Amino acid sequence: MEQQTLRTTDILISGGGVAGLTAAAAFGAAGFTTICVDPQPPVTAEGEAGADMRTTAFLHPSRAVLEGAGLWARLAPYAAPLQIMRIIDAGGAEPVARLTRDFDAADLSDEPFGWNFPNWLLRREMVARLAELPLVDFRPGVATTGLVTRESGAEVTLSDGSRVRAKLVVAADGRNSFIREAAGIPVKTTRYGQKALAFAVTHPLPHNDVSTEIHRSGGPFTLIPLPDRDGLHSSAIVWMERGAEAERLAALPVPEFEAAMNARSTGLLGPLTLVTRRSVWPMMTQIAARFAAERVALIAEAAHVIPPIGAQGLNMSLADLTCLLRLAEKDPAHLGEPAMLAAYNRRRWPEVKAREIGIDFLNRASMVAPQPLRDLRAGVLGALYSLKPVRKTLMRAGLGVR
Prior knowledge:
Elements: E1 6-14, H1 18-29, E2 34-38, E3 55-59, H2 63-68, H3 72-75, E4 80-82, E5 84-89, E6 99-104, E7 114-118, H4 119-131, E8 136-140, E9 144-150, E10 153-158, E11 163-171, H5 178-182, E12 187-203, E13 210-215, E14 221-229, E15 232-242, H6 243-251, H7 254-264, E16 273-274, E17 279-288, E18 292-293, E19 296-298, E20 304-305, H8 313-330, H9 338-367, H10 371-386, H11 388-399
Helix pairs in contact: 1-4, 1-8, 8-9
């Protein structure tokens, strides 16, 4: 009877968010038997309760793993290209643009920086892709409740009473990761007293494939291109503010909220109209002390959390996945063994730490309130942009390419 409840697999992925679903598709398409579990069934329609109103910008280097997983063909029809990354400083006495700088992907290649998608749509298409993969067993509504690792493998207990023996357990179960804690890996967390509002708008002026960060105080106000919505130009917005102010804004009646967001947008795309509900997310920086333990690899927010600046978050997660997948494909006979996991940690942890430091600096700079510091921020931006080699280096660094 005991043997009937024990399932064996190459890989057990704990977590069915965008990163976990991508990982399941990538490993399954690469020929590894894969089980992916998540305690919450994915919400795959914008209007459903619990829909993730955030968006994800897949930067150009992330496209390869999506293509290999068979996901890109599904996602491409819904993509909004990101051709230009625009930074506006509106930190003067009045909330108007006083400095605008464009980082154009054409300076690097004939491809855009990346492509933007609503998170709820990503889940819909990714779940559909998993259903096509015979090596993937996706179990929504099932949580990981126990983990025991040995040199020979890992045994995971699930909330439905079943047990799984895996060569490798991939923790993609978020910033409060059960697998990370069960593996005894500590984290360092920095809280900013800051939250982000995420929602979508329509507007009369086209965004022209430009993603725009507007800096004043409290954090950036970012407009990210979306495909047209019911014949109207549309963008996603991530509006970062001090926590109390973010909660106040989220509770405003729609007319008052629209007035506030139009003032904060500097009128860039004309009058903005709210077309979805508003969701609120706490901002933090968090990094695990290491990204691997016996038979366990951490990816995505189980490994690292950063504020949503420069489209870095999920693209760092897909870089984790790319590294782990390459190591697995290079030596599948030793999947999940110490040498593989040591190589993964050695390649990913320093890279993530460096980006964490950079994003932390940018976020703190975007939050400053005193006028002299806002003036200094504008001066530094102008000076960096004026040097073409520096500008190109910053763009390459943002993409994660050398």
